[in-house]
Amino acid sequence: MKRNISIIFISFFVTVLFAQSNDLNYFTEMYNNAHSVSNQLEILRQVQKENIPGSVDFFAKILKNINLNQISLRTNADRNAADEAVRLITSILREEGYRDAGADLWQAVKVFSNPLVKADALIALGKIGEASYVSDVAQLLQDINSIAPPDRETQIANERIAYGAILYLENFKDSAGYLPVFFASIGWYSARVRNQASISLAQIMDDPTDILIEVIRGERGVGSAINAVNVKHLALRTEERSGVSSESKSRVAAVALAEGWLYTTNDPQDRIELAAMRKLALNMLRRYGTTDLSVYPNINLSFTRSYDSDEKFGAVSTLAALGSDEAVDLLVSYLRELHTQRTRNNWTSADEQVIRSLISALGATRNRKAQPMLVEIANATLYTSAINNLAARALENVGGRR
After folding, report:
1. pLDDT tens for residues 217-242?
2. In terms of Cα–Cα distance, which of 60, 66, 64 is closest to 47?
3. 174 phi, psi to nearest 5 deg
4. Which candidate, 26, 171, 254, 310, has a CA 20 to 30 Å from the CA of 9?
5. Under a CB-based contact definition with an 8 Å cutoff, are residues 97 and 128 in contact?
6. For 306, what's the count of Cα atoms within 13 Å in the CB-facing half-sphere?
7. Distance between CA atoms of residues 145 and 165, nearest Å
8. CA separation for the pair 68, 71 (Å, rounded)
């Protein structure tokens, strides 16, 4: 009998302990009576381990409490334990998608100095879908973008916060977040942060055309840590990679080509970057087409003023693809000038390469307006039979006969 009573007592005692260990009120009392923040952290870990139903509310209340008491922490041990506690709680709130914790997560971003705490809280805010802080986070990221930190420690800290801000902003299709993330993708950060910014851009806006046009024109400030020419070129590349319409892409290309000739700089590297931007713009205009007549003066500059042969031939190819009367007028004017030089014996092998390119381009336009110039070249005795025949074939393409 005594043995049976002992077994019953032990079973009852274990049941009580088990019930206590799964009772949030029990853990709340333990947490409130803990002698240190480190002890409180261990209690939080135990609650997480027990996976008690409804514990997310418990963790949300604790986060509010930690935020309120953060300023009173005196020792490094307590501050470090509080940091770990907030990181643990934010991970739980993030996984649970606990929307009611938005204000307290943002408060954690503001009151804690540890960059990992800030980053985790920002990421959790994004994952729970709390869009109330888009403008605040966008400004936070832009502030970090604007000045490269003077030392490695600050750089690492700011990168962590920026990374969290980028991941927050990618959750919301809000134009306020686009430019800060765009500038982060070309900023002073490590490749990890820049790459994430590039990936996140596509999530924030389906069509960033208007914003990117402002960037290319220099109507949006970029901060002292970012090279303006690089930004213009990146804006064009970003538009090209996007899933927007051909019309939108050609519109940005037209702006970029114009800016490529308007922007002045004495820096050799910047000039190379501008030429690369103009070549990409020409390529986009060739592929996507345009009805914008303002592009022709700038295409003309790429042929007449550029020292880059690839840009010159790019201008010719673009005019051939456009095939408009304006395009033919320019091609004819170039061919006419070279033809005049040939009659004066002012001729080089490089000129022959260009004239072949122009003849082929006129044929590719399939525009009858090219006929008179091609007839003249096809029948001119100044040239080799190869050039005469090339002009004759081009003439056929535009509906003419030799």
Report:
1. 986 654 444 568 989 999 999 999 98
2. 60
3. -120, 125
4. 26
5. yes
6. 27
7. 11
8. 7
What confidence tens digit (pLDDT) does each residue in 27-40 have?
899 999 988 999 99
Tokens of 296: 């022709």
DSSP letter for each residue of 324-388: -HHHHHHHHHHHHHHHHHHHTT---HHHHHHHHHHHHHHHHHT-GGGHHHHHHHHH-TTS-HHHH
Tokens in use for 387?
């050039």
Structure tokens at 360: 């082929």
- CA separation for the pair 109, 197 (Å, rounded): 20
Q: Are 384 and 357 in contact (CB under 8 A)?
A: no
User: In angstroms, what CA-CA distances link 95 with 56, 98, 99, 181, 298?
Assistant: 10, 8, 11, 24, 53
Q: Which residues of 32-47 are buried (b: 16+ CB within 10 A; e: fewer)?
A: eeeeebbebbebbeeb
The closest of 337, 316, 339 to 328, measured between CA atoms, is 316
CB 27 within 8 A of CB 47: yes
CB 164 within 8 A of CB 119: yes
Rounded to whole angstroms, the Cα distance separating 187 from 181 reads 10
Sequence-separated contacts (24+) of 191-200 with Cβ below 8 Å: 192/159, 192/163, 193/159, 193/162, 193/163, 193/166, 196/163, 196/166, 196/167, 197/166, 199/170, 200/166, 200/167, 200/169, 200/170
Which one-letter amino acid corresponds to residue 1? M
CB neighbourhood size of 288 (10 A): 18
Q: Is the pLDDT of residue 293 over 90?
A: yes
Instruction: Confirm if 362 and 331 have CB atoms less than 8 A apart.
Output: yes
Enumerate the domain spans of the chain.
1-129, 131-205, 215-322, 332-402
Q: Can you read off the two tokens belonging to residue 205?
A: 């806006």
CB 287 within 8 A of CB 314: no
